[in-house]
Fold:
Amino acid sequence: MIDFTFTEEQEMFRKAAREFAETMIMPKVAEMEKTGDVSQDVVKALAEADMMGITIPEEYGGLGLGYTERLIALEEISRVSVATAMMLQVFALGIEPIIKFGSEETKKKYLPGLATGKRLATTAVTEATGGSDPTGIKSSYTKDGEDFIVNGRKCFITNSHIADTITILAKAEDTPKAFCAFVIDENMPGWKATHKEHKVGMRGCNTGELSFEGLRIGKAQLLGAEGKGLGVTMAAIGDVGRGGMVGTALGLQAACLEESIKFAGQRILYGKPISFLQSIQNKIAEMKIDLEAGKLLGYRAAAIQDAGGRSSNEFAVAKYYTTEAAQKAAKMAVDIHGGYGCMEEYPVTRFWRDAAVLGPSAGTSDIMKVIIARWAMS
Ligand SMILES: Cc1cc2nc3c(=O)[nH]c(=O)nc-3n(C[C@H](O)[C@H](O)[C@H](O)COP(=O)(O)OP(=O)(O)OC[C@H]3O[C@@H](n4cnc5c(N)ncnc54)[C@H](O)[C@@H]3O)c2cc1C
Structure:
């Protein structure tokens, strides 16, 4: 039997996440929009509410919950602040390779600090020469005894200037098909955050570049087997990165729908609220259809993972569907607002800008289609 209901605990978790987002994050949104900077108050609040350790096992200080609960939290947080959901989603993306591929020593070293927000994580794969094609990266390593020496530069990295625990991918200088994934931290000289990006949306979520110059990494920092790092980072992006973007997109879709219904109920034309106009109702219906369909896709993929399976293909479908739907919903929400949809005091302008940033993160829609077609034809 297929059960489409959330458990009582999951419903309570959603209620708590919504309350948290509305009381602790919503008051900070205007400031984040204005400055574009990460709000330290938000980071502190996320840590105190245990939002950073949702999927970290309890033995390392996390909540030990599943992909479903993570999706619930991201959906509720993104409904209030897409930027904050993005920051949180990439924390988990940076943590996943440590949970799945780290040695016991590595887990004990990093996970307790990450679960409590004393440490902040990210993952750094993308480079100017390797986004959709990660094998095109130029960051390389050579061996010096048991150590690895890494040189290179990463771009478009979420949390670049706030993270101190970073999973990185580098290529062997002399064996181009061998990649290694490492976890690096603030105590290792030879890396720094450099350029900060100014994004069109998700203001309050930091994105930037990292540079590695003679970064010496001990063997203990290796994640997975030497030479097999591409699989380590791609597994995390497939399961956690795509899943996180689904939660982020669903929250934005919900926000677009709610604001549209609110505005349509208040705006009077021809002596009645515009919610009586068929064309407005059509847009609201389309948003609702996409939100319901996106939830089924996303939570199904999360449920497969929670049952011990792999659902990176299902997450590719959900990521494609929900991020495209969020962009469509944001455009419709702006349209429903008429001229007010161009005025910054209306949140739909922020939704529109945030929606534009959803596409490339964790793989573009074109790349999702490549993955989905491969799955369909396999
Ligand atoms: C806000 C934001 C946050 C991000 N955070 C991180 C992060 O924390 N860590 C990290 O490592 N990366 C991060 N990224 C990078 C992200 O993963 C890449 O931007 C993405 O993978 C696309 O790579 P690219 O930008 O190099 O585009 P390109 O790969 O250059 O793509 C250019 C165009 O070609 C298309 N294309 C490419 N290949 C194909 C194909 N095979 N078939 C059809 N079309 C194709 C693309 O869809 C796109 O339209 C982030 C990006 C953004 C925008």
About this structure: The longest helix spans residues 229-266. DSSP finds eleven helices and ten strands in the chain.
